[in-house]
Write a structure and sequence with these properties.
By secondary structure, this protein is mostly helical. The protein contains 21 helices and no strands. Among the domains are: 124 residues, no CATH class; 127 residues, no CATH class.
């Protein structure tokens, strides 16, 4: 059922996104305001999706003018606005409104894209076909954008620099309208198509069931400078759409889902491939980083695979601060695991691993190791390991000895090992 009109809403965020509303150092304030606006739109979407979509259009219109004076060199604001577009585009696409209302929204958004400087909402073009909602409206927009795009491509073919901000919009609309042959013809006209354009040609091939050919097309046309991560993400998505999940996982999933931390990577894969047992997934990831199994310690700990986490903590360098936190968090519930984490922390600190370590980190590891050993009734084992660490000639052993001497026997001379 479609709605012929939307209810006018007094959006609170409207006044907060005036042109030039944020100063040069306004990144954090702007991100806070964006989050407030998204919260407001989400609240309306729960009972009136059409009205919420109207709010989404309004926010996207106002983003670039409001943010134009901010120093965006850190990329933080760009990431926030990109995430905003990714959240709001589906809300607009699925809104139950008439074609007339949707056409007015598209006209407003098209104007916003033309004025998008800095380009905070340029990724909206990737969703243009879906924003059209129907093949008929997408075809209308294709016809509207095609003449300009063809003129630009003719200029590019003659060696003249030419750019059209509606290029991605046109490809997206043609794809929604299932005018696939025209997409391929346009790409053939472009002497140097960039990734955001080429990917539409690859999507056409994938839609025809030619996924391997689509990947090869990207590699051949995009050249050696193209990120393999981008290709992996494309291939994984298309294989998953085709129901070829084992191939998607085995060939592309690890590269396509790389996150800022190994734990985040594990969580992303576990969410995307719930059919895989988490223990097997972890084993696969450990095998993917030969020589660096310790990097998956946090993932094993989070899964409560304490025996495996213990092996990983000792297998290759782990961050001592991470090990100390794990030891502290599990001191009461898993004292044996806590002891091993603390001892491994001392071991890797003695080997010179760790970032911005202080004497407090050494003291914490030593204290927790002894307390946990007492709880686990393994005091002698812990003592023996600590003595081995301090008796060895390692890069940071002397420093650790000095730190522990200050704590354990500040007024006496001699080695720390004899006082542990």
């Amino acid at each position: 059922m479609t709605t012929t009109r939307t209810v006018t809403t007094a959006w609170a965020f409207r006044a907060r996104f005036r042109r030039g509303a944020f100063g040069w150092k306004g990144t954090q304030l702007a991100i806070g305001r964006i989050n407030e606006a998204l919260t407001e739109i989400r609240a309306v979407a729960s009972h009136d999706p059409a009205c919420a979509a109207e709010g989404a259009v309004l926010l996207l219109e106002k983003l670039s003018p409001a943010l134009c004076q901010i120093d965006s060199s850190s990329g933080t604001l760009g990431n926030a606005t990109y995430a905003t577009v990714q959240e709001l585009a589906p809300l607009i696409s699925h809104a139950p409104v008439s074609t007339n209302v949707r056409q007015k929204w598209l006209d407003r958004l098209f104007e916003a894209i033309q004025e998008d400087d800095p380009p905070y909402i340029e990724s909206l073009g990737d969703h243009w076909g879906d924003l059209c909602s129907t093949k008929a409206l997408a075809s209308t927009w294709s016809d509207q954008l095609l003449p300009t795009l063809k003129n630009v491509l003719r200029e590019r073919k003659r060696g003249t620099y030419a750019f059209f901000s509606g290029t991605t919009l046109c490809y997206s609309a043609l794809f929604k309208a299932e005018r696939h042959d025209q997409i391929m013809e346009l790409l053939d006209m472009d002497p140097r198509p960039i990734w955001p354009y080429l990917v539409w040609g690859a999507k056409v091939l994938a839609t025809r069931g030619q996924i391997e050919e689509a990947v090869a097309y990207l590699r051949e046309r995009a050249g050696s400078t193209t990120s393999e991560t981008f290709i992996a993400r494309f291939a994984e998505v298309e294989l998953l759409k085709a129901g070829r999940r084992p191939e998607a996982f085995n060939q592309y999933a690890l590269l396509a889902n790389q996150a800022n931390t190994h734990l985040a990577t594990f969580r992303a894969l576990a969410k995307k491939y719930p059919e895989l047992a988490k223990e097997k997934l972890l084993d696969h990831l450990i095998a993917s980083t030969p020589g660096e199994p310790g990097k998956w310690f946090s993932a094993a700990k989070t899964l409560k695979l304490f025996e495996q986490a213990t092996r990983l903590a000792w297998a290759s360098p782990c961050d001592p601060k991470t090990l100390n936190r794990a030891a502290r968090d599990h001191l009461k519930t898993q004292p044996d695991f806590a002891m091993q984490c603390a001892l491994a922390s001392l071991h890797w600190m003695s080997m010179g691993h760790g970032y911005e370590l202080t004497g407090m980190d050494v003291q914490d590891a030593h204290r927790i190791a002894n307390v946990a050993a007492s709880e686990a009734q393994k005091t002698e084992q812990a003592r023996s390991i600590i003595e081995q660490v301090l008796a060895s000639d390692r890069p940071s052993t002397a420093w650790i000895k000095r730190v522990l001497c200050i704590v354990l026997q500040p007024a006496e001379q001699g080695t720390c090992a004899s006082h542990i």
